[in-house]
Amino acid sequence: MKKQLISIAVISSLSLANIPNLHAEEMDSGINSSEVLAQTVDEREHTEELVGLSSGAVLGAVVGGPVGAIVGAFVGVLIGKTVGDDSEIETQNELLAEQQQAIEIQTYELTALHEKQQSLAEVTDEYLQVQTQLSDLRQSQEQKMQELAIGLNVQFKTGSSTIEPHFAQQLDDVAYVMALSPELMLDLTGYADRRGDSKFNQALSEQRLIEVTNYLVGQGISDERLHAKAYGATAPLNEQQNFENDFFDRRVTLKIMPVGEALAAN
Predict the structure, then answer these.
(1) Assigned domain for 84 exists
(2) Which helix (H) or strand (E) holds 162?
(3) In contact, 76 and 53? CB cutoff 8 Å
């Protein structure tokens, strides 16, 4: 309690000591009351700067006497500085939050752009695959067209009109080409080898021709696009008759009809 009283007395004496000096200076210099009032207002403008210092000094004087007043003054200054630092930190946090938001937006936009690029790459790959497939189909079609232009043969076993699996696959390809080119018409001719009776061979060549025609019709080709004629054993591929030559004579030949012949056939 004694220290508190001493502290208050010291502070009071310091304050009172300044007042007479102030009045004396005013009287000596001839400063009037209005000028004093203006000076007082100006001094009040700096009061906020001394809030921490004066508050700490008073608090220190109450708690620890004159020494406490000095310590309290420094503490008050630190408190004032801390308040200013907190305000600056808050401002910095707001700026950081805005920057973080901007970074998130940019990240989202970059992610969306990456997804679009990836999707575009996938579409490009699919397009290239389709183009490759179309190119392969086009080459296959051209090859089949060349074969049909020269003449594609379906071979048969002796005395048989049954279409073998290998030649059935070739007929499937022919039907596919015909479906892609509705303007095409085919000339089908049936043959038999020279062994056996000529009437039997004629009938056998006709039956082979019927089997091939029915197979193509079953694949969706209109019979109006097929011109068929059987020749029996009257048109061998080779003059000499033997086992190998007979094999090539047992056939049905498919060939693209020239436009003039196709119109005449219709």
Answers:
(1) no
(2) none
(3) yes
What SS3 class is residue 164?
Answer: coil
CATH number of the domain to which 242 belongs: 3.30.1330.60
Residue 235 forms part of a structural domain:
yes
Closest-CA residue to 252 (of 197, 214, 199, 196): 214
CA 42: distance to chain centroid? 69
Distances, alpha carbon 197 to alpha carbons 134, 157, 201, 202, 234, in Å: 49, 17, 6, 9, 12
194: domain range? 151-265
Q: Is residue 256 in some structural domain?
A: yes
In angstroms, the Cα distances linking 83 to 59, 78, 92, 121, 234 are 18, 9, 14, 56, 118
- How many domains is the chain partitioned into structurally? 1
Q: What are 30-44's pLDDT values in tens digits? A: 445 455 444 554 554
Alpha-carbon gap, residue 266 to 264, rounded angstroms: 5
Query: Contact 168/178 with Cβ under 8 angstroms?
Result: no
pLDDT in tens, 66-80: 555 555 555 555 555
> Angle at the Cα of 50 (from 45 to 52), degrees rounded to 5?
135
Is residue 197 included in any domain, yes or no?
Answer: yes
CA–CA gap between residue 204 and residue 157 (Å, rounded): 11
Q: What is the pLDDT of residues 192-201, one digit of tens each?
A: 999 989 999 9
Rg (CA), the chain: 57
Nearest-angstrom CA–CA distance, 61 and 83: 22
Model-level pTM? 0.50
